Amino acid sequence: PPAKRRHGYFSLPVLWGDNFVARIDAKADRAARKLIVQSWHLEPSFKSTSTFEAALEKELMNFAKFNQCDSFRLPRARQT
């Protein structure tokens, strides 16, 4: 049920190297051609860096294109 969800309806794992570092709940709005990242959560042991965030944005753009979207919106991360 929605009230019990901690990481969203459809949570994708994020790997950085060999480590699981975050979860992303994304939804493709194909009519508007936008990938909406509804939320993303960093794992407690991971500290984000500018290098990680740049790589994440690049891969999210690739994921957006894969879903026939032209852009994406990324809110601030939450620490889990």
Features:
80 residues; alpha/beta; five-stranded mixed β-sheet; 21% helix
Describe this structure in words.
The protein is built from one helix and five strands, in the order βββαββ. The protein is of the alpha/beta class and 80 residues long. Strands 1, 2, 3, 4 and 5 form a five-stranded mixed β-sheet that branches. Helix 1 links the parallel strand 3 (34-42) and strand 4. It is globular, with a radius of gyration of 13 Å.
Summarize the structure.
With 80 residues, the protein is of the alpha/beta class. It has one helix spanning 50-66, and strands spanning 11-16, 19-29, 34-42, 71-73, 78-79. Strands 1, 2, 3, 4 and 5 form a 5-stranded mixed sheet that branches.
Number of strands: 5
Shape: globular
Structural class: alpha/beta
Mean pLDDT over all positions: 88
Largest sheet: number of strands, sense, barrel closure: 5 strands, mixed
- Count of alpha and pi helical runs: 1
- Helix proportion: 10-25%
Radius of gyration: 13 Å
SSE arrangement, N to C? EEEHEE
Query: pLDDT under 50 segments (min length 5)?
Result: none
Query: How far from one another are the termini?
Result: 19 Å
DSSP strand content: 35-45%
